[in-house]
Request: fold
Amino acid sequence: DTWRFGLEETEGSVQYAYAEAFKDLIEEKSDGDVTVQILPYGVWGSNYSALYDALQSGAIPISFGSGFLGGTVPESQLMSLNYVMPNDQLETAEILNSDAFMQSEAWQQSFRSRGLVPLAALPEGFQVWTANKPIRTPEDMKGLQIRVMDNSLLRATYQAYGASPITIAYGELYSALQQGQAEGNIQPVFAHENMGFYEVQDDMIFAEQAQFIGNLIANEDWYEALSDDQQEMLQSTLKEMVQKGHDIQTQFNAERLETIKDNSDINIIYLDEKERSRFRELARPVRQVYVDMVGERGKQALDILLKQVEESKSGSSD
Ligand code: 6CS
Reply:
């Protein structure tokens, strides 16, 4: 069997490194019966809707889906809420991949009702702002044309902060920033480096408002047609990948921050707790926006997540 695996990111990304480690494990465990074929962004195409369509049709039976997935699985915008997850990134990975959340009826049905199966969640690092001016307060963000992924919840979040969010395709973002069409950007550190975005931005701001979460998703018919042994092999691999995914993302983000510092004089700002609290307050009502937007099933998923976070060791970033 060949398992085609679609990525929203290019080579040199966290999704790519995750896919390589996943491929190694699956090919080894299957004794060569399964070959995993990695299809990065740009290889399958570059329009995310086309990737999610291929996932729904089964042409690409495994794929990541993240901030652009809201049109296909509205409930998936849960992963875009700010100041909800614990600040501890490994804990976030464990909560999102726990049976209590990942296997819950609410989360499973959100995807299954669209012919998909959520397999795992990959935190890819904190979402870090960039702009051509320092941002420490909502006033600093006022009217800023910051680029967000195509997702109503992110637009609502950044409007709540006072910005004027705009959506631009990932592949067109570098030139949009360079030409000033977009005035700010939100990415994990590795992506600011991997896509060169930092070259055309002056300030980089760590507000710890959210981690970037990639959803690993399978086509439902494809998944259900796997033998019991293959499903078990896949599920046990996903469990192993929780820690590995965390190791990959922390290493990538730390190394790429050094690369950015070495190659630019970008101004790096870490918001303190008091500064963060202003954004946190503004983000709070957006939880209700999520519930109003996606309805009861999404509310259930959010409630399960909040309960898990509450019970976690470090507590939420809220
Ligand atoms: O900003 C984006 O559109 C993309 N950024 C990353 C880091 N992964 C996929 C996502 O679509």
Summary: DSSP finds 14 helices and ten strands in the chain. The longest strand covers residues 116-131. The chain has one domain: 2-311.
